[in-house]
Amino acid sequence: MQLTEIPGVGPKTAALFEKLGVKSCEDLLAYYPIHYDAYLPPVAVGTLTPGAKCAVRGMIARAVVVRPMGRVTVAVTELEDPTGKIRLTWYNAPFMRTVLKRGQEYVFRGTVAIRKGARVLEHPEVFAPDKYEEKIRTLVPVYGLTKGLSGNAVAKAVRWCLDHLPHDQEYLPEEVVRVTGLLGERQAVEDIHFPENEDSLQAARSRLVFDEFFLFILAMRLLKESTADIANAFPMEMGWEIEELIDQLPYRLTAAQERVWHEVEADLGGSRLMSRLIQGDVGSGKTVIAFLAMVMAAQNGYQSALMAPTEVLARQHYEKLCKMKEDFGLASVRPVLLTGSLKAAERRAALRAIESGEANAVIGTHALIQAGVSYKALSLVITDEQHRFGVYQRKALTEKGAPPNMMVMSATPIPRTLGVIYYGDLDISVIDELPARRLPIKNAVVGPGWRPNAWNFIRKELTAGHQAYVICPMIEANEELEAENVIDYSKLLRKEFPDHKVAMLHGRMKPDEKNKIMAAFAAGETHVLVSTTVVEVGVDVPNATVMLIENAERFGLATLHQLRGRVGRGDAQSYCIFLAGQSSEEIRERLDILSKSNNGFEIAEKDFELRGPGDLMGIRQSGEAMFRLADVSRDRRVLTLAGRMAADILHDDPALLGDEMTGLRRRIRAYMAENEGAVIL
Ligand code: ADP
Ligand code: MG
Description:
The protein has 681 residues and is an alpha/beta fold. Among the domains are: 40-136, CATH 2.40.50.140; 240-431, 3-Layer(aba) Sandwich (Rossmann fold), CATH 3.40.50; 442-597 and 599-611, P-loop containing nucleotide triphosphate hydrolases (Rossmann fold, 3-Layer(aba) Sandwich). Helix content is 38%, strand content 19%. The protein has 23 helices and 21 strands. The strands form four sheets. A seven-stranded parallel β-sheet has the order 11-12-10-13-14-9-15, sandwiched between helices. The chain is globular. The protein starts with 10 loop residues before the first helix and ends in a 7-residue tail after the last helix. Residues 286-287, 384 line the site of magnesium ion.
């Protein structure tokens, strides 16, 4: 249904929605809030800390005074409870004089600031105590917004869709609903937008997360069915070139790399097709394993393909492989780059070389498995950082010849038991050791007061010829959420660093635009990159030596660790500054884990212990992760459940042919169609 069917939504508003990627009423229902604002019980005035959004209940101690201040007026009064007093101020709100009665009790909700050394609650919302009581524990959805579109407008439009769009029938087989006790899908969608309380939000989230995992796992199993246990049509032998190459590398492989390489080598030389996941923390050295496998394929007269999540990364891999070929005289390796942005003539030449076998080490984005690419003897497909993609497509590749060996490389730290559920019966190799680094990243956890120092620090690094990342949780300003955003922040930094080029990057940009921006940063043409978490996987810019993460408290630790992996890739000392917009003991304790550990797996475990699945602090940007809501580490219980249900169903009805599977069948078909661009093993 078209958005303009919604009362109050005209073409102008519809265009704004489109900017957010919302093109229809169905899209709108799937445009989940990025955050929820909670009305928490009032706290004592004596315990208020700066930066925290909170409610206080107390008596108005003095009459409201309205004073001019420059071009605005400021209304001031004071609130008192048994533990202390705090000043309250409102700008351009002279009516507060009549709203607030001295000696009366109210609840005020706002953020505490420090002004001239004293605590102030600035522009707080005002409630009668009984009205606030009613609101306590309710959650208000916060949506990703764009200029001209208010949170209220989005919420209203969503409400209308919930009330007027026809209900889909439950697609899950009755048995699954019964065994899992999950909420109905429709109810879950309603509650993810407008949860009555935290419990109903968790229940809604569980159901939708279940769906994401369940469909993913089923789709994967169904695709795998057709290629499971197939003989390896490309048996390889290990030749002298690789032994020599390993000896000549500028570094010694770590013991873990060596172990994993031997596992890969054994697979490639074996009689069954390889399906292997290489899991290794950022910087553990996965790329070289991929290159060795590609060299081995080339030596044996076969082709291989390496697929990266972004063009920039593909180009970087390509350049590294070319350099390796040069440095070590690898005559049998003939690399070619195939990405979406090649010029028509270049693309034609690349395609011809791939078809004739003249090129045998193909590196690119998912363009390299799209229609129109045919290989002569594709023996091996490697997917780098697959969690950006999803995993289909052995099928797409196999339609043209014998199915290739598959290798997936991922930095997402998931425990082995979960890996098995998530990736099916994929073999898993873990690189559980980092190369000894000369200079580990230096970390700092600081508060907003330290921001000027952080900027000065960045300026120093820039002046020394280095580059910097700044990460913000939001794309655009949001009236309902106090958190830094990429658009305003990059404007601010352009003023702050007039001698350097500041660029911005976020998930709402078109892929082409994102590529250009990342490429310019990688080439050193821009110096500061202000970005959301889209930058998490993607570029290798050794010259970037500092990362400042704003509102670090709004991210999961695993994400922060991945982000930090963008720096510390060159020879110079690198730094990561975690700036917490709110400072509490709890937040500091959580962030301090990052200073103490550099082990992604350990960090993800600690994060899970501390936050669990119930965390409401985080901000999620839509379209920046593989799943809408699900998080492999955080939602492990639901993942396990989804894995069990999928296995049960397939055990009883491997092709989903039963009558009670009709809805599920239809849904999976739609899911696979939707994810066609994705690469699922
Ligand atoms: P990731 O696992 O995150 O993909 P990369 O493969 O990009 O990591 O490796 C990160 C850096 O470490 C690269 O510059 C690479 O050359 C280097 N590297 C890889 N293996 C080793 C090693 N055994 N010793 C020292 N440096 C290594
Ligand atoms: Mg990598």
